[in-house]
Amino acid sequence: MNFFRLLGDLSHLASILILLHKIKTTRSCRGLSFKTQALYVAVFITRYLDLTYRWVSLYNFVMKLFFIGSSCATLYLMRYKYCPTHDPSIDTFKIEYLVGPCAILALIFNYKFSVSEVLWSFSIFLESVAILPQLFMLQRTGEAETITTHYLAALGIYRAFYIPNWIYRYFTEGVVDPIAIVAGIAQTGLYLDFFYVYFTKVMQGEKFELPA
Amino acid sequence: TVDDRVKDEL
Fold first, then answer.
1. Does the distance separating the beta carbons of B4 and A63 come in below 8 Å?
2. Is the pLDDT higher at B1 or at A164?
3. Is the pLDDT reported for residue A83 higher than 90?
4. Cα–Cα distance for residue pair A25/A145, rounded to 1 Å
5. CB < 8 Å & 24+ apart, contacts of A46-55
6. What is the rounded distance in angstroms from the CA atom of residue A118 to the CA atom of residue A125?
7. Which chain B residue has the Cα nearest residue A118?
8. pLDDT score, position A26
């Protein structure tokens, strides 16, 4: 564990808490993509299968359980409790275009051709693009509630912190994980446009609005 | 190989 990874993980944790807080306080999941949340459930379940056969640390164990649990809870809240506030007509990104290519990539790029390793690779690739339905929705509506943008910013910052973490690990431990690094950099790249608007507008107290 | 990947990351 190093400083960057810890900050990244805490930012990830914060993003989920912000998301649940938004749903609870506004009693609505307006502006949130159900598809993105469903993809995160798939990401966490396929990646954390190792919970059942590998012990890493208490920290690792608790965080994995939290990510699986909270993502399922979010999906439940969106699907049942606050279902009427969710508008499927603007959540139209075709997730087949994400899941299919990620499955193919995972079959090609993995560290061992076994069920658990291919699923791990799949989860890494899928996570890198899971935010696209959400960003697509934002693009379509052209604006977002401030709390939703805080959620997205925390999620993007989490990925951004993983990059210095890998650089640090390369120099201190000699560890290089090309699949995680390439997918992680791509994933962070997807947030750049969003970050630009977030830091120039939302952080200055303005509403998140995309230029027409 | 499997040893290359960072198993302790989330």
1. no
2. A164
3. no
4. 13
5. A46/A119, A46/A120, A46/A122, A46/A123, A46/A126, A47/A119, A47/A120, A47/A123, A47/A124, A47/A127, A49/A116, A49/A119, A49/A120, A50/A116, A50/A120, A50/B7, A54/B7
6. 11
7. B2
8. 93
